[in-house]
């Protein structure tokens, strides 16, 4: 599972509600993940302000030297982003699928409080299946 | 007269990726965040005054660089978030894409930042940015009347740049 390094979910006010690491080098502590999440939230907002034309919805793909970051924002403002190897395909499908899992296993869970950190076992199980390499390729079809 | 023969970076202009003028604007910043050059070709939407726009752009690049340096999943030594880094240090980025534009970014070892904003479906512009940097070196740095750190006012540079960008992205 080297293709995907990590997954983050940010609520509409920039707070980190879910973070999962799939094997990046060097552990990131919780404080740093929280800071990165809120930093990404603001960069996403600033990129909309700098758009030369109307109707900008923020960064979808950031290409760094050693990784790609794909971001998907739902209509309610929740942001999902994956950090993966440069040039990994079908990430937008994976993000849509993760969004589906989120609506099914998190939002429909009566014990889940909105905008709070996600602790749902079923979501974790289904997520780890979706992120497996061969499954991601299937999503692209 | 051979201008680009002796340079190592991109000896000949790379072929244009898409035909037609898709470029929106171009920024050149020096390492202190001073905007040396701002050119715009097609920008219908202006939300801020020019000065604030340049500041916001530089701030965005600075913060995105610290974000990528901290997030880099391949290195174990990442340092602290928000600590300024020297050019070439840490993991940087070369472009990002939104649904309305694509921003390509290059930083030279001396800290000159070149930013080109184009149509979202343009391809990889790294070579084009290197070529623009090369133009900057030839027409601006080698101009004896130009003092480093001052805004660029070289007519020849601007016209060559316009001509080149028209063919790119």
UniProtKB/TrEMBL annotation, chain A:
UniProt keyword list: Endoplasmic reticulum, ER-Golgi transport, Golgi apparatus, Transport
Listed name of the protein: Trafficking protein particle complex subunit
Gene3D superfamilies associated with the record: 3.30.450.70
SMART domains: Sybindin
Domain of life: Eukaryota
Quaternary structure and partners: Part of the multisubunit transport protein particle (TRAPP) complex.
Residues that span the membrane, as ranges: none
Localization: Endoplasmic reticulum; Golgi apparatus, cis-Golgi network; Golgi apparatus
UniProt KW RNA-binding keyword: no
Family: Belongs to the TRAPP small subunits family. TRAPPC4 subfamily.
InterPro entries in the cross-refs: Longin-like_dom_sf, TRAPPC
Endoplasmic reticulum in keyword set: yes
Automatic annotation (TrEMBL), chain B:
CDD domains tied to this protein: TRAPPC1_MUM2 (cd14855)
The keyword Endoplasmic reticulum is annotated on this UniProt entry: yes
Lineage top rank: taxon: Eukaryota
Entries under SMART domains matching the protein: Sybindin
Keywords per UniProt: Endoplasmic reticulum, ER-Golgi transport, Golgi apparatus, Transport
Keyword Cell membrane belongs to the record: no
Pfam families per UniProt: Sybindin
Subcellular location, record wording: Endoplasmic reticulum; Golgi apparatus, cis-Golgi network
Assembly notes: Part of the multisubunit transport protein particle (TRAPP) complex.
Family of this protein: Belongs to the TRAPP small subunits family. BET5 subfamily.
Protein name, as recorded: Trafficking protein particle complex subunit
Source species: Solanum pennellii
Taxonomic path: Eukaryota, Viridiplantae, Streptophyta, Embryophyta, Tracheophyta
Gene name of the record: LOC107012347
